[in-house]
Structures are given as structure tokens and as C-alpha cells.
């Protein structure tokens, strides 16, 4: 029982310590996220946009960015780098997240639906159901994704079908919540089928049912609650995917794995963005097996710093460890240098260290890179020649 409730206990302890206005999060790899990535490159020197290595994005922070662009446009100072399509998409971001915007559907008739079905139903273009009261906000929308294709030298069609719903809301402007539930059926290309066959797992999914040699079905259930510990520190507890890095892939933390239980602290102040992420990991269960699985845990830290208005550098560290029936609380240290704790524990765990950078150049190009060392040990890097070849010099890290 202890390993199931460790993160929940910690989250409750912080929740009862104090509450402020909070934020929900944009879905990972949403259209709004791609828009913000584009704005970051074109604006080049926007401090809020540049601190974007940790995803999903905080909805409140980036709606404020969209509001600032609108304010400049209304004052006749539309930034030269914004096209009509950019302004349209920024308006869409505000309309779909109006609970955080300084503006409202009352100010912009284009945010309202031309054919509402009743109080709250299709009143705005952003949500099918929307309740917006002083102390309560709720939006409910369908989550549907369908596509189909073909593959050479393969007779069966390739397809992905996902049907479900997404919910998000605010309670008293203090607690935010969001959830996604979908039922999915997928028949992927050859690399997808080979991965399922070789690993008895579906990328990005937990348990699954295999209908035939090429088709799988699975449920995708995600959700979280958020609140602010202080004005500058946001806290999120739930089950979802996370991403740390720049670009579509990352050496640090990608979204290839299934949703997992996590506790995240995000501190944003001045030119700094600091993330503490604690996760509980488990192997994908085989559909024919009904038993418990040995858990693993991860503690991660990532610090981003805007060195200049166009250059951001970051530092990353992570410890992956397994303990029988409990979480190792020594890894809850909220500051960097987990490697020293792991060494004091006898170095039984997997330690990762990394650095990254990102540069916005000429408002047209973004250059980024990462370097990660998996289980970095100095004695395995320092060698000297001997009569029999190379001998590793035994030096502690």
C-alpha cells in the first residue's frame, strides 16, 4: 500500500499548505502548442515563450502571451512578425481558453456560436458545453481522431480510431482539473506491428487487447489536478505523459511511454524555469496476466535559464530507481545534485545527467541540441595504457 500512496500523500501535504490562482495545461502536441512554438521563433526575445522546454504548456501563462499580442494590435502596434493567420490562431487560443483571458465572448461576437442549443450548449465556438460562473468553470468537449491510409506491400488498411471526451475546469479559481478518456483501435505500419510483436506493448498505451496480428485496441485515461503553492510555484498531480526538451523528440524525457502517475512542481520566476518531476513507473501488463507489477520510480530536475533574449540553456538530472513497496524519500530533494544522494546510497540506481540549449536566430530559425550521459561514472571515462591494452583507472566519481 505504501508504494501506491507515496506521491498522493506528498501532494495532499502541499495542497493543504496554501492555495492561489492556478492553471490547467494545454494538451501535449495540441495545435495551440505548435502555434506557441512558432511565436517563440518569430518573437525571438519573448522571455515567457523562450522558457518552453517543459511540456505540456501552462494554459494560463500562454493565454497571457496571446492577450499581450492582442493589446499591442489594438493599440496599433501589431508586431511586424505576426501574419493574419498568426492573429487568427492567437484569437482561437484565447477563445478556446477564455477562462484565463482578459477578454471574454461578450467583447468578441466571433467567439460566440451562431446557433446555440441552449444555456451552456454550443454558446461559444470553443466548447460544446461551457459553464462560466464567478467561482466555477467547466468545459466538456468530444475527443475524436480518425485517419486511414495504406502501406506498400501490405494489403490491409492502416487506421487509427479514437472516440472519447475531454473535461477541464476551475473550482473557486483555486483548484484546476482536467481529464481525458478515449477508446482507441489502431492498425499501424510495419514498425508499429513489429514493436507490438517484439515487446508485447503498444507505444503510448498501458494494457491492450490484440484483435489480430495487426490490430490492437486500448483505453487512454488521463487526468490531473493543479494548484499554486505560491505565486511562482505551480503544482500538478495526476496521470499523464510528460515531455522535457526542445523539438519533437528528446533524450531527456519523451512521450513514447504510457501515461504514468506523477507529481510535478514548476517554478517560474525572472529568467528561470525550474521543474521537479516525480514519477511512478510500471511495465505494461500483458492482457492475459492479472497480477501486480514491480514498480520503478523517477526523480527529475530541469533548470532553464534565458542567458540572453535569444539563447536559453538548461541543465537536467534524473535518478531511476526501484524499491520494494516504498518510495525512497531521499530523492525528494527539490534542488539539483541527486547524483550525490545516489552515491551516498551506495550507487544502486541509474543516474542521468544532461545539458541542452536553444537559440532563436533571425526570427526564422530555431537551433537546439542536447547532450545526456547515462549512468555517468568518471572512472569509466579515465583510462591509461598498460601492457595488455587499456586499463580503467579506479577513481570514484
Provide structural commentary.
The chain is of the alpha+beta class and 397 residues long. The protein has 2 domains: 1-16 and 229-397, Porin (Beta Barrel); 119-224, no CATH class. 19% of the residues lie in helices and 38% in strands. It has 7 helices and 17 strands. It has helices at residues 2-15, 31-43, 47-50, 59-74, 84-96, 190-199, 338-344; strands spanning 54-55, 129-133, 136-151, 154-171, 175-187, 209-210, 215-228, 233-240, 243-244, 260-269, 272-281, 296-306, 311-321, 350-361, 365-374, 383-386, 389-392. Strands 2, 3, 4, 5, 6, 7, 8, 10, 11, 12, 13, 14 and 15 form a 13-stranded antiparallel sheet that branches. It has a two-stranded antiparallel ribbon with strand order 1-9. A two-stranded antiparallel ribbon has the order 16-17. Strand 14 and strand 15 (365-374) form a beta hairpin. Helix 4 packs across helix 5 (84-96). The protein is globular. Mean pLDDT is 83; it is low at 7-19 and 383-397.
Amino acid at each position: 500500500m505504501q508504494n501506491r500512496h507515496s506521491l498522493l500523500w506528498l501532494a495532499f501535504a502541499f495542497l493543504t499548505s496554501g492555495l492561489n490562482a492556478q492553471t490547467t495545461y494545454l494538451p501535449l502536441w495540441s495545435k495551440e502548442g505548435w502555434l506557441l512554438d512558432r511565436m517563440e521563433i518569430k518573437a525571438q526575445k519573448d522571455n515567457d515563450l523562450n522558457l518552453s522546454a517543459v511540456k505540456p504548456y501552462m494554459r494560463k501563462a500562454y493565454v497571457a502571451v496571446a492577450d499581450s499580442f492582442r493589446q499591442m494590435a489594438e493599440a496599433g502596434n501589431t508586431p511586424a512578425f505576426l501574419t493574419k493567420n498568426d492573429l487568427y490562431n492567437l484569437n482561437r487560443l484565447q477563445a478556446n481558453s477564455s477562462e484565463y483571458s482578459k477578454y471574454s465572448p461578450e467583447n468578441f461576437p466571433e467567439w460566440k456560436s451562431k446557433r446555440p442549443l441552449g444555456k451552456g450548449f454550443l454558446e461559444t465556438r470553443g466548447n460544446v458545453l461551457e459553464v462560466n460562473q464567478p467561482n466555477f468553470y467547466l468545459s466538456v468537449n468530444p475527443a475524436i481522431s480518425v485517419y486511414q491510409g495504406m502501406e506498400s506491400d501490405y494489403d490491409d488498411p492502416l487506421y487509427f480510431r479514437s472516440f472519447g471526451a475531454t473535461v477541464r475546469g476551475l473550482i473557486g479559481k483555486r483548484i484546476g482539473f482536467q481529464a481525458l478518456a478515449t477508446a482507441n483501435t489502431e492498425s499501424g505500419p510495419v514498425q508499429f506491428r513489429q514493436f507490438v510483436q517484439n515487446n508485447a506493448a503498444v507505444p503510448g498505451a498501458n494494457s491492450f487487447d490484440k484483435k489480430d496480428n495487426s490490430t490492437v485496441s486500448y483505453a487512454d485515461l488521463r487526468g490531473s489536478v493543479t494548484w499554486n503553492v505560491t505565486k511562482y510555484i505551480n503544482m500538478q498531480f495526476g496521470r499523464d505523459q510528460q515531455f522535457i526538451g526542445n523539438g519533437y523528440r528528446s533524450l531527456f524525457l519523451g512521450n513514447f511511454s504510457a501515461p504514468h502517475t506523477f507529481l510535478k512542481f514548476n517554478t517560474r520566476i525572472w529568467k528561470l524555469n525550474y521543474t521537479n518531476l516525480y514519477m511512478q513507473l510500471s511495465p505494461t501488463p500483458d492482457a492475459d496476466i492479472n497480477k501486480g507489477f514491480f514498480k520503478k520510480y523517477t526523480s527529475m530536475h530541469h533548470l532553464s535559464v534565458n542567458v540572453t533574449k535569444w539563447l536559453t540553456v538548461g541543465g537536467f538530472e534524473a535518478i531511476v530507481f526501484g524499491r520494494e513497496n516504498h518510495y525512497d524519500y531521499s530523492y525528494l530533494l527539490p534542488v539539483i545534485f541527486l547524483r550525490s544522494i545516489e552515491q551516498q546510497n551506495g550507487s544502486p540506481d541509474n543516474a542521468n545527467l544532461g545539458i541542452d540549449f536553444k537559440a532563436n536566430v533571425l526570427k526564422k530559425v530555431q537551433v537546439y541540441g542536447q547532450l545526456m550521459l547515462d549512468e555517468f561514472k568518471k572512472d569509466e571515462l579515465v583510462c591509461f595504457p598498460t601492457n595488455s591494452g587499456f586499463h580503467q583507472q579506479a577513481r570514484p566519481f
